[in-house]
């Protein structure tokens, strides 16, 4: 990235005088980039930062799996395998297998079942994957486009994307001429088939940084309204779902065009209904996930129980036969 | 007239239909508006943490309590599983926030933003009002650890960053905005932040002479333009040392959250369970002992002593007098 000095003449004068400082920075950065370091602790620090960063990206899924695996699955399997080992002299594979079945199936299933259900629902109604707050903002923007264009839009998706840009970045103070350039790039990325999240993120950061009153604490943030903020990658995904579902269905409709007023009324009614349906689908998905997880947990014992007698009862039986009062 | 009647009935039916549509829309809106936020899934499709906890309590814990064979097993299930579920779900973020708050204060590098208290007192629930009584805990819970992207914004200088004065052609640059964001918005210590940059020894030597106070630091930097431009360039680098250090410090609260959670679930809760069981057993033992000692004495049988008893006693006794009594009985 090129550094923009305040005064070129001043910068050149200082640069030539203190070239040594700049070269020190450059060589130090080279060392950092190549990762050459005689301090072994640096790689451990980087490793820790990378691992925690990975867990953070994956969210609650990775976090809970790790806690569940280390604190419940592994210890309980070990305890199961070593049950009554001092009496029988053998590893108790049956008890270990039952513990493994119970612990491995119960914890991860509480996360995987809801994810599977939402993916299945998304296959039929993509817009059900959009959070309710974002859905309301997207629908509000789309409604404005419908009211403005009244069925005469050449490309609904582009008009919709432009409206989103105006809502998010309209209040920002940018230098003259920059706003339109940013808007067209924003629309191009949002409506493009193969747009990448990184490219969109860079654009949003540039817009926020160049504005005088942008969000400087979190430049990679798009404020759709006072209450709703999304990341660029999330907005890209939500826009794709919204346009492939709701906008596509809107285009298929044949609203009466007796008058503009009738058209707008019919179009608004359609949008209101489909938005409500998608939001209700989202809530219903969550409730279904809750009940599906519950049903699975209740049926789980049939999957992992390998015999009629539980390992605890077998252990008690052994203790009785062995004449010991110990009960495990 | 028949046509008019037909037309009016059609109008009535269409009105009814419209009203039905409105009623359905109102119901749907009511459901969407009033459904608790916990029922909204996360982006990845996971249940929210609160709903996940509810599912664990209802199905996991509920099932175990119903199937428990005696009251001891029920008690153990409650004392073991309730804290395990809560700590497994909330432990990592909550402990992480507390640790992040302390790391930020002690190191002078910002890795989190402290959320402001937006709710009015009248709208707070009981838990929130309780937390308000402990300002340090409240601050720790309101600590929002920055994401990886946010840290890059805070520690990597983007030349696009302009202040309003720079746009107007005045002297303040985007780098001033960058530094003021670090010092005023994020409360970082500028000298400590700058000390982590990839700089040569000469430059580091100059930095050690600068003030620890942020306002003084900025003033001194303003008077040393070459140093300021050097720092601008150093911050411009995508993998600068300050960012690396911040990323490492940001990883520590998460790691600490995991460590504390695993320690509590693996060691703390089983020990608590054993402790409670022993206390209850001890209490039961002492109760049964005191019950045994307070038992009333058995009523003695009423016995009538006859002459046969006298003779028996006399016969068995060793005293001379008793022998005389016994022999007199025998004579009789």
How would you sum up this structure, described in words?
The complex is a heterodimer of chains A (328) and B (332). Chain A has a two-stranded antiparallel ribbon. Chain A contains 13 helices and two strands. With 328 residues, chain A is mainly α. Chain A has helices spanning 8-17, 19-34, 41-58, 60-81, 85-88, 93-124, 132-149, 156-169, 178-191, 197-210, 232-252, 260-304, 311-321; strands at 222-223, 229-230. In chain A, helix 7 crosses helix 8 (156-169). With 332 residues, chain B is mostly helical. Helix content of chain B is 71%, strand content 2%. Chain B contains 15 helices and two strands. Chain B has helices spanning 2-34, 49-67, 71-107, 126-132, 135-141, 148-155, 164-167, 174-185, 190-195, 201-208, 214-222, 225-236, 241-293, 307-316, 320-331; strands at residues 112-114, 143-145. A two-stranded antiparallel ribbon of chain B has the order 1-2. In chain B, helix 3 packs antiparallel against helix 13 (241-293) and helix 6 (148-155) crosses helix 13 (241-293). Classes of the chains: A mainly alpha (328), B mainly alpha (332). At the A-B interface, helix 1, helix 2, helix 3, helix 4 and helix 6 of A face helix 1, helix 2, helix 3, helix 6 and helix 7 of B.
Give structural attributes.
heterodimer; A: 328 residues; mainly alpha; two-stranded antiparallel ribbon; 2 strands; 73% helix; disordered N terminus; disordered C terminus; B: 332 residues; 15 helices; 71% helix
- Proportion of β residues of chain A? under 5%
The SSE string of chain A, one letter per element, is HHHHHHHHHHEEHHH
- Largest beta-sheet details of chain B: 2 strands, antiparallel
Rounded to the nearest angstrom, the radius of gyration of chain B is: 41 Å
| Chains forming the largest contact | A-B, 92 and 88 residues
Low-confidence parts of chain A lasting 5 or more residues at pLDDT below 50?
A: 1-19, 31-39, 323-328
Determine Rg of chain A (CA atoms, Å). 30 Å
- The secondary-structure class of chain A comes to mainly alpha
Shape, principal axes of CA atoms of chain B: elongated
* End-to-end gap of chain B: 141 Å
Per DSSP, the total helix count of chain B is 15
């Amino acid at each position: 990235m090129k550094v923009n000095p305040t005064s070129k003449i001043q910068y050149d004068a200082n640069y030539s005088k203190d070239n040594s400082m700049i070269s020190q920075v450059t060589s130090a950065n080279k060392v950092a980039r190549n990762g050459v370091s005689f301090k072994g602790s640096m790689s451990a620090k980087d490793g820790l930062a990378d691992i925690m960063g990975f867990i953070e990206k994956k969210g609650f899924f990775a976090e809970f799996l790790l806690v569940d695996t280390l604190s419940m699955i592994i210890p309980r399997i070990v305890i199961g395998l070593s049950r009554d080992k001092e009496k029988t002299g053998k590893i108790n594979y049956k008890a270990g297998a039952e513990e493994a079945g119970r612990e491995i199936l119960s914890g991860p299933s509480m996360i995987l079942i809801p994810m599977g259900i939402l993916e299945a629902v998304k296959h039929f109604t993509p817009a059900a994957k959009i959070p309710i707050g974002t859905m309301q903002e997207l629908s509000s923007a789309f409604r404005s486009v419908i009211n403005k264009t009244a069925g005469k839009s050449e490309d609904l998706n582009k008009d919709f994307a432009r409206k989103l840009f105006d809502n998010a970045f309209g209040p920002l103070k940018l230098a003259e001429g920059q706003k339109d350039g940013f808007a067209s790039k924003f629309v191009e990325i949002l409506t493009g088939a193969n747009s990448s999240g990184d490219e969109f993120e860079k654009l949003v950061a540039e817009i926020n940084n160049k504005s005088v009153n942008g969000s400087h604490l979190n430049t990679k943030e798009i404020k759709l309204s006072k209450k709703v903020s999304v990341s660029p990658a999330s907005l890209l995904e939500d826009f794709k779902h919204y346009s492939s579902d709701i906008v596509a269905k809107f285009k298929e409709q044949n609203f009466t065009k007796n008058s503009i007023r009738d058209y707008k009324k019919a179009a608004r009614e359609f949008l209101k209904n489909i938005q409500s349906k998608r939001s209700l689908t989202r809530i219903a998905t969550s409730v279904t996930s809750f009940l599906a997880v519950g049903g699975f947990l209740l049926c789980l014992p049939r999957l992992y129980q390998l015999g009629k007698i539980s390992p605890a009862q077998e252990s008690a039986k052994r203790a009785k036969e062995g004449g010991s009062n110990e009960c495990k | 007239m028949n046509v008019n009647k037909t037309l009016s009935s059609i109008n009535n039916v269409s009105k009814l239909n419209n009203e039905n549509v409105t009623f359905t829309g109102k119901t749907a809106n009511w459901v969407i508006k009033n459904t608790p936020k916990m029922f909204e899934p996360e982006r990845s499709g996971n249940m929210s943490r609160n709903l996940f906890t509810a599912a664990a309590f209802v199905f996991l814990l509920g099932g175990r309590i119903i199937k428990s064979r005696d009251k001891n097993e029920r008690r153990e299930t409650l004392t073991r599983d309730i804290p395990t579920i809560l700590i497994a779900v909330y432990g990592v973020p909550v402990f992480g926030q507390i640790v992040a708050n302390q790391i930020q204060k002690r190191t002078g590098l910002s890795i989190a933003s402290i959320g402001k208290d937006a709710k009015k007192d009248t709208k707070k629930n009981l838990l929130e009002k309780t937390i308000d009584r402990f300002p340090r805990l409240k601050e720790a819970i309101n600590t929002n650890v920055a994401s990886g992207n946010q840290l890059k914004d805070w520690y990597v200088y983007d030349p696009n960053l302009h202040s309003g004065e720079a746009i107007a052609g005045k002297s303040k640059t985007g780098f001033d905005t960058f530094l003021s964001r670090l010092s005023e918005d994020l409360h970082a210590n500028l000298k400590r932040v700058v000390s982590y940059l990839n700089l040569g020894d000469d430059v580091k030597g100059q930095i050690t002479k600068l003030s620890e106070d942020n306002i003084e630091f900025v003033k001194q930097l303003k008077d040393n333009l070459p140093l300021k431009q050097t720092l601008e360039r150093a911050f411009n680098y995508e993998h600068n040392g300050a960012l690396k250090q911040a990323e490492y410090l940001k990883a520590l609260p998460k790691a600490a959250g995991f460590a504390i959670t695993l320690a509590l679930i693996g060691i703390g809760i089983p020990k608590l369970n054993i402790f409670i069981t022993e206390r209850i057993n001890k209490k039961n033992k002492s109760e049964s002992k005191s019950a045994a000692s307070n038992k009333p004495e058995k009523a003695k049988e009423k016995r009538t002593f006859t002459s046969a008893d006298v003779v028996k006693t006399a016969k068995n006794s060793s005293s001379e007098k008793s022998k005389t009594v016994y022999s007199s009985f025998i004579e009789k």
